[in-house]
Specification:
The protein is globular. The relative contact order is 0.14. With 430 residues, it is an all-alpha fold. 77% of the residues lie in helices and 0% in strands.
């Protein structure tokens, strides 16, 4: 590789596009877009919740194949190639809409998209840590969050709004085909851009062979489960998002469902405005408030319980909407804003817990990745069964059930042992 390709590049030229691209596959497949796509194609909540849960599983297991990526090529290669492949897979999903086996084909295509989306996440996080000094990492971390949230606004706001505009004009299938085509073009453009502007650094690794990777991975896994109170920690991670995984998966389906079926009968354009704009702004404000709160109070039993309450109790707003079936958009928008603010504020609880209680030790970065993947796995398992519960109970009773489902999160938050931060390293990790 020519020496000039190793010149430092201004982070502002690649961090925004990289984190915007990281957000798109995750938000399309795990958020509102694909769920509404399947809803409009006539599939049941049970089918939608289960199969969209299957689709996003790669994000739960990405630490498994991440180490093997060190054996071949560079982090830059994995980022831009994954983005281009995601774009091509979105393009193929457009074609699948005009076949007789759309659901089966699209699930396979979206599962592959999730795999490459997770792959780019691994490489991007690694490149960020490899390329930037600790000072620059702290300086640009806000840019990561900002452009990831731009992706959220683009998907949950812009694209959902557009499909609502397109459907009366082009019809249901054509409208969704246009939306997925837009995603395809955007991902392809981002991949081609990042191929030029991502820093091309050498693969800084000491890994020599696949057997080395297997041995290291085995040590990482074994040492993870040898940590003090680890099973309490795993239970906390899995249960903290138990109610959320159910509520968030069904929420857009409830908003879209006809009022005669217990839903709110909202148009996609209205839903896009409420969740995209109200929801995103509230989420950002909640995240900022949580950052100040935790930095001042630190992690202790009281703060963790408060964060858990802020994360879980706002689901009562959806129960209120399901019970009343109000048509007042200000009330609906307020409910969305309350839930998203609570999510932004409370989610930091599980992140800080993993950082301070799970990650420290010999394999800090790897164990943080394992802990983060477990949060996704807990969310995914809960979301996969949510459709079955929703179809069985109806939306009103389902959201009441969600409130009941928050109880395990409060119990484990009260019971989970909290180790002093400077005593996290176990004997075998010293």
């Amino acid at each position: 590789m020519p020496a000039e390709t190793f010149k430092k590049k201004n982070p502002i030229t690649w961090i925004p596009t990289t984190w915007f691209a990281m957000g798109l596959p995750n938000l399309v497949l795990g958020g509102t877009v694909v769920s509404l796509l399947y809803k409009n194609m006539g599939f049941s909540d049970t089918q939608i919740a289960f199969w969209t849960g299957i689709i996003i599983l790669p994000w739960s297991f990405k630490p498994i194949w991440g180490p093997f990526m060190e054996l071949y090529k560079t982090k830059k290669f994995y980022i831009y190639v994954s983005q281009i492949i995601c774009g091509l897979l979105f393009a193929l999903s457009v074609a699948s809409m005009y076949t007789n086996h759309f659901f089966t084909i699209s699930v396979v295509l979206f599962l592959l998209t999730a795999f490459f989306g997770a792959t780019q996440d691994i490489a991007a996080d690694g490149l960020y840590l490899q390329e930037l000094s600790p000072k620059l990492q702290a300086q640009y971390v806000g840019w990561q969050g900002t452009f990831y949230n731009f992706a959220k606004l683009f998907s949950n706001g812009g694209m959902i709004f557009l499909v609502g505009i397109f459907m009366p004009i082009f019809g249901n299938t054509n409208a969704w085909a246009i939306i997925m085509a837009i995603y395809a073009v955007v991902m392809l453009c981002l991949g081609l851009y990042n191929r030029k502007f991502l820093p091309a650094t050498a693969n800084q690794t000491t890994v020599k062979s696949a057997s080395d990777v297997w041995l290291t991975l085995k040590d990482v896994i074994v040492s993870f489960f040898q940590k003090k109170y680890i099973w309490y920690g795993i239970l906390f991670i899995m249960l903290y998002r138990f109610a959320e995984g159910q509520a968030i998966k069904i929420m857009p389906l409830f908003f879209k469902a006809e009022r005669t079926a217990g839903g709110l009968g909202m148009q996609e354009s209205t839903l896009g405005m409420l969740t995209g704009i109200f929801g995103t702004i509230a989420f950002v404000l909640g995240s900022l408030a949580a950052g100040y709160f935790v930095s001042n109070k630190g992690l202790n039993r009281t703060t963790l319980l408060l964060l858990c309450a802020c994360f879980n109790l706002p689901f009562a707003s959806y129960a209120y909407l399901a019970i009343t079936q109000t048509e007042n958009l200000w009330i609906i928008g307020s409910a969305v804003a309350i839930e998203h603010f609570g999510y932004g504020f409370g989610f930091i609880g599980i992140i800080i817990f993993i950082m301070q209680q799970i990650a420290p030790g010999k394999y800090q970065m790897a164990h943080y990745a394992f802990g983060s993947s477990l949060t996704y796995l807990g969310y995914t398992i809960a979301s996969m069964v949510s459709g079955l519960v929703s179809d069985h109970l109806g939306y009103k009773d389902f959201f009441i059930w969600v409130l009941i489902a928050t109880i395990p999160a409060f119990l484990i938050t009260w019971l989970v042992p909290l180790k002093p931060y400077d005593e996290n390293i176990t004997a075998n990790e010293s």
